Each structure stands twice: as C-alpha cells, then as structure tokens.
Amino acid sequence: MRGTKAAFVLAIVSAIPVLAQPAPAAKPAAATPVIVPAAPAAAPAVPVAQPPVPPATHPPKARLDTQAIQEILDQLASPDAAQKKAAVEAIRQRMQTRGILELRSNFIKAMLNNKMFKETADLADEAILSAPWETRSVEQILQARIRALLALGQSELALSESKSLFNVASMAGTSEAILTTVECISAARPKDVELFNRFREEQIAGAATTSASTQPTTQPRAIRSSVLDGLKVDAKRYDEALAKFPGEDGQALLARGNLLLLADRPKDAKVIFERMYSLSSVELIEASEALARQMKAEDGTIGRANAWVISIRPKLKTP
Asked: pLDDT, tens digit, for every residue of 249-271?
C-alpha cells in the first residue's frame, strides 16, 4: 500500500493545477487560493492572507500571557498525570475567554507530541463546536483530532472525520485534507486496494477544471466521489450546535455554514453561504471561498470549485 500511496501522490500532483491567489475585486469577481495535493519541493507556495496583527500596546500583559502559555506547555510535558490534567483544564478555560486560536497555535501540537491522544480528540471537538466560524482553526484542529483518533486505533472514526475535514477545509488546505483521507483509508481499510484506487482515480478525474459560470447557482455538473459519498458522518453534535448561532450577520452565517459542511449537509450549507455572499459587510474573499468550499463538499472533488474560482477572478488588463 505504501508504493500505491506514493504513486497516488505523484499522479495527483501531475494531474491537478496549482493556482495562485489573485487580488480581491468587486463582486461578482472574487478569488480564493485553490490548492490541491502537491509535492512540497515542486509546488509554488500559495500565500494565505492573515489578519493584521495589532501593535502590542501592553507589553507587561503580553509578557505575563507568554509566561502563562509556557507554564501550560511545561505542564503538558510533565510526567505527572495531575499536571497534564491541570494543563488541559487551563486550556479549556482560556478557550472560553480567548477563542480557539491559542489551541491551534500553541497547544494542540504539544498535546499530540506528549501522546495525549484522548485529550486531544475530546478538546478538539469542543473547540470546533465552540467557534465553527474560524475556518482555518477548525480545519487544523480537526486535523489534530484525526491524528489522535488514528493513534488511538479508532481508524474508522478517523475516516469518517476525514470526510468532514474535506468538506470544511479551506481551498488552501484541501490538498492536505485529501492526503489525510488517503491515510485514513490506508489505516481503516488496509486490504481494500480497490477503494484506495477508486478514490485516487476519482480525485484525479474530478480535479479537471471545466468551464464555469460566474453564478454559483448555474455551475456545470462535476465528477462525484463515490468513495466520499459512501462515508457516513455522525452529524448529531453538529446539528445540535446550529441553534447556538442564530444570527444573520457574517460570522453567524459562516458558523452555521461550516457546521453544515462538517455534518455533511452541503446542500443546506449552500443556502446559508449564498446569503452570506449577498452581504456587503462580509469580506469578499471569505464569502466566495465559502461558496467554493460548498461546491467541493457537494461533489467530493475539486474541479467545479476550481472552475468557479477561476471564472470569477479579476481579468488582467492587457497593456
């Protein structure tokens, strides 16, 4: 299976275009990074826009915060189970007041490195349900949850979660999501070479970029992934979380849309993301990427989403 996996990676790298992120433009023109599995050495880096970092106006407070983070990291690395437990509780308390970025940036990798697999899986789930509008954090924390589940030997659950990851992943993170699904297939169905090969073939065929309209409601049919169609997601916890985000502002709509993608309900997510796209107060790149992610989740392949992103890019002016 290792040789087959390596061949899949090489095949999909050669078959799928890597598209750079263009500058934003007025609606309907919009753009998001469109990424597919690519060899790190060969593929050009795709810039991912980051929110501006405000200047540090309270250095003493920042130093205290850095010290608190380091103390938690030290507790996570401690051989004392009580210290580890205290660290997890401290992270949980900080999540309630600071959101989930700290978990993504500072703690989740440390928990995995210290073999706290159950704690990682559980805390990741809590984090995702608490702030589902933070797409990049959600996908990276869900990646860590899947790693933890694989380490715990829960490969079937990890495979199911990999479908949610593929659905919700940003366009920049889609390549890693595809390869995570490959890893989960290998772990959960190690003798099912046919399943592995079918997933490979569907992803390569489905990555072919076709002509597309600039209207997300009039996109052409795409090649679907029967492998992803066959994976079932336990949607109950995501469905229950929907009621916590009832608003019609951009953040609430993004939260509900992402929860619907995680629950494998992309058709319902489409309605939410189209409302979000219509709001003038929402960042154009984020809104258009949400629609592209919905197309990707509905198809289980990336061709239609790629085509739409290309079609709404600003046209370069000829000198």
From this structure: 999 999 999 999 999 999 999 99
